[in-house]
Amino acid sequence: MRFSGHRWRLCLFLYFLLLLPLFSSGECDYGEEEGALDKKAALPLKIAAAFSILVCSAAGVLIPSLGKWIPAIRPENSPFFVVKSFAAGVILATAFIHILPDAFEGLSSPCLDPIPWQSFPFAGFAAMMAAIGTLMIDTIATGYFTRVHTQGRAAAVAESIAAGEAEKGATDIDVVDVEGMMYHMHTHTTHGHSHAVGTADDSSSKTQLIRHRIIAQVLELGILVHSVIIGISLGVSNSPSTLKPLLVALIFHQFLEGMGLGGCIAQARFKVRSMLTMGLFFSLTTPAGVVIGIGISSVYNENSPSSLITQGILDSVAAGILIYMALVDLLAADFMNPKVQSNVKLQVMINFALLLGAGLMSLLAKWA
Known about the structure:
Layout: H1 4-19, H2 39-62, H3 78-107, H4 114-117, H5 122-166, E1 170-178, E2 181-188, E3 194-196, H6 200-236, H7 240-268, H8 272-296, H9 305-335, H10 338-341, H11 344-363
Antiparallel strand pairs: 1-2, 2-3
Helix pairs in contact: 1-6, 1-8, 2-7, 2-8, 3-5, 3-7, 3-9, 3-11, 5-6, 5-9, 6-7, 6-8, 6-9, 7-8
């Protein structure tokens, strides 16, 4: 389940897609950014944005991971459910309030040909297909890795049985299958005791861990797509009056989004190296987009038809992924958790945290 080697290829591919407008014809002056354009004054703001977003993104994604050293925020404890619910609200608002409206605006822009772009809701269709695709990937990947795990356990049990049969003094060997999990029992005449290889709880725990790891990987994919887009969009802007409020909003945006991703990474219990890799990619993606945007700001036209189509489709796909992940894998799973269902106080707290996270991220839409 190691996808780290492919993350940088994904990022390069997304950057390449967004740079395609540089090699295509067609311009449109509709919807130029408001405010006086001053490239010289905008440059320091962009550099400050890149460093600030890097630091805040890293802080956001690392805070939930501190549960390794701070017991109160470990995944099995109540505070973690509250933090994760808050983060899920942030991710849900990011998709519905920040990304999807931009996708609809871009794919229905007057700069595009009325047919087909203004005669069909391509943004909604792409988001729907992305959500369905995420569901398919989610179920197929979970089934595949669960089967691999089960087959590995079965092979280990078979080896134990073979060793037990050859062991001197073993008088009874029995193999049973309970809910798909194999058990090996043998009794020694000299000691009068038995051993079991594997338990149903162990198998369930391992399957759940697989689910958490898939969720973290897919969620990171959706967030990376979005981060690439906002990074380049910020980098190509040359209006200081637009950049100042946008900078503050994006700092909070990336910090809160990082907390959402960090919570899933912590719950997946990756090794420290994998956790750092995932956190590093999230932290660097937007600043890298800002740097690229600075480099191409003099020639990039974000209102060209090819740019609008590319960004609109990527925004739609990112929104579909994040909506599915927030509702199905984050909120539904936690809200139906037996620990939550049996604790009224915890239920109230996570519902409040959900509304608070969604509300704060929705409020940021006024500036970003």
